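Holo prediction. Input below; ligand is N-oxalylglycine.
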Amino acid sequence: MVGEEMSKELGGSLLVENVQALASNNPLVDESLQIPIIDMRKHMVEDDEMGKLHLACKEWGFFQLINHGVAEEVIEKMKVDLQEFFKLPLEEKNAYARLPNGIEGYGQPYIFSQGRKLDWGDMFMLGSLPASQRNMKFWPENPSSFRATLDKYSLELQKVSTCLVKLMAKNLGNNPKHLTDMFENGRQAVRMNNYPACVNGSNVMGITPHTDADGLTLLLQVNEVQALQIKRNGKWIPITHIPGAFIINIGDIIEVMSNGEYKSVEHKTVLNPEHERFSIATFHFPNVQAMIGPLQDLVKENGALYKTLSNIDEFFGLSQKAKLDGKSLLYHMKLEN
Ligand code: OGA
Ligand code: NI
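Structure of the complex:
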């Protein structure tokens, strides 16, 4: 569990000073346009922080998580190994190339969300959990520590995700067991992104606008090149990342399960004219037993706003269909459609 001992390792007070400095000393940062900052350590003790998390999920769909309890060395090692991998010669990376109809491997974008045709960057996608379903032929042996590093990283992130899902279930007023059971031993996939510097960056997108299809995404900004933007009230808002924080967003599945109370928000990345950028998005899906639909406790008042699918494979099927007809996955899940 993400508990106190793990949080201690992070030296949280330093992070909090950074946040305050960011908010109060930087005239360029309009606080009202910044996604909420949630302090995981405070959740152990403070009700206020629970309220903040609820609003973040309802009104922003995005937040930055500080004091998340993942040891700094686990994160730093992941950053190093990932950059080493992307630096390898193309032939070597191509040994892990994605197959024409596959999802995993090195190459170009995959099926988890639609409209990615114009993405400009390399990505490397791996199914990371459950560990028994890993397809090791895609897991690089160079750098030699890569496999062990990703193993540790994926387990740590699963813990954070599980903890957040539990807090969200409490906030939704749902029996926390229903939601947490569905994410227990859930599937996790890691998408490692490498966006080159691009002088004409304004015409090309790192990742074109999309919502994430999963339940919950944890994003690690590997080097501090800012590029992520989210759509809010019809406008694109750049995110100013806080060093050490994970950027978390609600995916389509949690929007559906919360019966629309929590929002899966559109986002994109732009390219930087001078600097290449690396990031790792870790996607968390429910387990194979879970039905994908609004939680029973949440449909009593207004009725269900979304369909219920009998399992995650049906959901991926619909995702494929959405990709082909260009409509969003959520469009297909909404009952009036
Ligand atoms: C994604 C994503 C954002 C980023 O991989 O789905 O939104 O900053 N990534 O790389
Ligand atoms: Ni995304």
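The two ends are 40 Å apart (CA to CA). That is the main takeaway for now.
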